[in-house]
Amino acid sequence: MTLPPNFGRAVDLSSLGKPAPQAPAVVAGISVTTANLTTDFLEYSSTKPAIVLCWSARSPESVATLEILGELESQNNGTWRLGNVNIDEQSQVAQALQTKTVPYAVAFVAGQLVPLFEQAYAKEQIALVINKVLELSAQQGVGAPPAEVIEPEEEEALKALETGDFKSAQDSYKKLLARKPHDSFAKLGLAQTELFIRTDGLNPETTKSAAQADPLDVAAAMACADIEVMSAHVQPAFDRLLHCVRNCSGDDKKMAKDHLLALFALVDPADPRLIKARSDLANALF
To answer: What is the four-CA torsion angle of 238, 240, 246, 251, rounded to 10 degrees?
Structure first.
């Protein structure tokens, strides 16, 4: 492994435009220098990934980003190494890493430099980047993949489900979605929990008989479709509600459509039955 050919040149980051104030008293990570870049980062990255942040005391955003990375390194329990490049003191290293602005983060994976980001991000977004680095490294046989992290609200929900407390589980998933509205696992967990709530106490035989007696009784059709999905009979559930959408009107049609969409959330998006049902629903509505 060798350093980049421009390693000995100076770096010009004059756009920062201010004299460098005193650096923070405690700086996260190992300080990267010309002496340790090869051994402590390039060579080290053949066993575990290393992430290096270029920063300057003149840039509060870069200082904050370094603090976030320090917190994440501690939380990840040694699965990767953090290095920091104070560009005001280590201009040769900054030039070698092709630093144009700060904060600027790169990763070393199996001796290769991988640019990551060159602006400030929230901790949650930086954590996602690090997970991607760990995944990439594991695919190349370096280090371990990221450990699965369970959100506290999800853990509450799972414990509630184990005891049959569906209402508490529902509340926990709603709390998680209020905090992370795009969390796909929380959406699926809430949809499953609400299915448990709707089917709790239903008698499968009498529910099915009621739906067969009047196929356009939307309430009966919805209850029967829930039972069918619980029993992994997805196609009959879809067909039953599609029949209501095609042949009902007003509030009944809307109820059947909304319930069908709720059931769609419980099925793998790549499932051919779901793909066809989505198309059939669009045709029925338009």
So the answer is: -100
pLDDT per position as a tens digit, 96-145 = 999 999 999 999 999 999 999 999 999 989 999 999 999 999 999 998 77
Cβ-proximal residues to 253 (8 Å cutoff; 6+ apart), any chain: 244, 245
Q: Does domain 14-139 have CATH number 3.40.50.720?
A: no
By residue count, the chain amounts to 286
- Candidates 231, 204, 227; CA nearest to 241 is 227
For domain 204-285, the CATH architecture is Alpha Horseshoe (1.25)
Q: Cβ(156)–Cβ(168) under 8 Å? A: yes
Alpha helix ranges (H) inside the chain: 37, 60-75, 91-96, 123-139, 152-162, 166-179, 184-199, 204-213, 218-230, 234-247, 250-264, 272-285
> For residue range 6-61, what is the model confidence (pLDDT) as tens digits?
433 333 454 455 555 666 778 999 999 999 999 999 999 999 999 999 999 999 99
Enumerate the domain spans of the chain. 14-139, 152-199, 204-285
Give the pLDDT confidence of 188-247 residue by residue, as tens digits: 999 999 999 999 999 999 999 999 999 999 999 999 999 999 999 999 999 999 999 999
Q: Which two tokens stand for residue 102?
A: 């700060």
Would you say residue 148 has pLDDT above 90? no
